[in-house]
Amino acid sequence: MLRNDLLAGRSILITGAGTGLGRAMALRCAELGAGVFLVARREAPLEETAREIRARGGRAAWATADVRDFAAVERAVARAAEEFETPDSLVNNAAGNFLARTERLSPNAFAAIVGIVLQGSFHCTLALARRWIEAGHSGNILNIVTTYAATGSPFVIPSAAAKSGVLAMTRSLAVEWARYRIRVNAIAPGPFPTEGAWSRLVPSAAAEQEWLAQHPMRRFGRPEELADLAAFLLSDRADYINGECVTIDGGASACAPGGFRHLLDAPVEFWEQLEEQRRRRP
Ligand code: COA
User: Fold this and answer.
1) Structural domain tally of the chain?
2) Does 157 sit in the ligand 1 pocket, CB within 6 Å?
């Protein structure tokens, strides 16, 4: 379905691009002809992803930034413009999440997740859209949310609150900035096994099997499936899609609301073990 030149001539900034779904989207967009500018906190995964893209004949550059820091985001965007090219598209993918009983959270834990997901998405959006609007360029924003952004979910309250904020921002800006030819869409993924998500959200092999057994397709998503959807939504072929959130979860949220309701009956030992695992982590 996707032609090899689908994104030729395009330039896409992707946050959280060193690992997981961000990396998969970067590889696929580059394969389809886009130059990709990778942003994340850690240098090593960015370097490795850029190297892989170049080895496959694609164009990639990167800068480290914590998206919670607006000045750092501004520096990354400026660097993209100087050393690479001004991105015409943005994928807000950087995220943070963990399972926790809400009454055990510290205000700082809440702030860490909301800072990355909601403020971070706003920071990147603002930094790029200001440049597009000032220069009279069109633009394209794709926000990676989650199926529980629409329904809420227990045990991931900071993430649920932040992601639903990003979804509201998607629909609001799609309307406000349509006059500038800036499209704003979202993808709501269900379960996709990446190291980052699984290490924080799926505490054991038994929990994974239980989750799988409840899934209508009895399988999780494949990163390349999400990457293809992202590439399509970013492409000109999707020019009339604006303010939309596309779910990709194999029917899981049609079957039952997304999120972590299956943990409502988890015994107190489950939570104690999770907290103990975290204490032991370096
Ligand atoms: N349960 C409860 N609280 C937690 C927690 C957990 N599993 N992990 C971290 N916190 C709390 C910390 O205790 C701290 O609060 P405190 O200062 O009151 O003690 C606060 O959250 C910030 O933690 P810290 O490790 O200093 O933040 P950070 O900015 O270095 O890391 C995280 C941010 C916590 C989101 C970290 O997990 C991360 O970097 N994640 C990125 C990748 C990711 O989450 N991917 C999954 C996407 S689905």
Assistant:
1) 1
2) no
Inside any domain, residue 215: yes
Q: List the Cα angle 148/154/158 in 5-degree steps.
A: 75
Residue 35 within a domain = yes
* One pLDDT digit (tens) per residue for the chain, 282 residues: 799 999 999 999 999 999 999 999 999 999 999 999 999 999 999 999 999 999 999 999 999 999 999 999 999 999 999 988 899 999 999 999 999 999 999 999 999 999 999 999 999 999 999 999 999 999 999 999 999 999 999 999 999 999 999 999 999 999 999 999 999 999 999 999 999 999 889 988 988 998 899 999 999 999 999 999 999 999 999 999 999 999 999 999 999 888 999 899 999 999 999 999 888 876
Beta-strand pair 89-92/11-15: parallel
**Is 3 among the domain residues?**
no
Residue 254 corresponds to which tokens in the numbers above? 């049609």
CATH number for the domain that contains residue 97? 3.40.50.720
* Active-site pick, 132, 148, 192, 220: 148
Domain range for 131 is: 11-280
Residue with the smallest CA separation from ligand 1 atom 1 is 100
Q: Which atom of ligand 1 is nearest to the CA of 97?
A: 44
Q: Can 148 be counted among the known catalytic residues?
A: yes
Q: Does some domain include residue 5?
A: no
Burial of 113 (0-12, 13-18, 19+ CB in 10 A): buried
Phi, psi of 88 (to 5 degrees): -95, -5
Pocket-testing residue among 39, 42, 102, 108, ligand 1, by greatest number of atoms within 8 A of Cβ: 108
